[in-house]
Specification:
Blueprint: H1 3-10, H2 12-29, H3 37-51, H4 56-83, E1 98-100, E2 111-115, E3 118-124, E4 134-141, E5 144-149
Parallel strand pairs: 3-5
Antiparallel strand pairs: 1-4, 2-3, 4-5
Helix pairs in contact: 2-3, 3-4
Length: about 150
Amino acid sequence: MNPVFVWLAANPLYIWLAIFVIAFVFEIATPSALVSFWFAVGALASMAACAMKLTAPAQIAVFVIVSLVCLFAVRPVAAKMLRGEQIGTGAERIIGKRFHLLSDVTDSVNGEIRVNDVLWKVKSAQSFIEKGTLVEVLAIDGAKLVVRPIKEN
């Protein structure tokens, strides 16, 4: 058997160190992608398990479990922090906004509102809303906005 493999088998700490270094270097090479950070943390945990003289299968189990826990627990939070707040760029930006109706809305007749100099057809989440009523946009259904009346303060 190759003496390098014999030496590595006797010193698994170096295997975990190599995995850590490879994962860390790969993570540095792919900034803000969060590709291999989890494996670097798993390798560190496995180095600790190796230092505690746990068996090779136990070290591998520690690596897999810690890597998966990091992946599923930390990734969503870290990804959100890296992306920042997402702001809609299209029509979805008007959802939740309030406008005054330019015409009555009934079950059979769509009303209108003006959004940034654009007339939108609206339909009601209720049966009837009178012209001039303050409404909130709940959703977009095709080319129409779904609205509900809001009481003015």
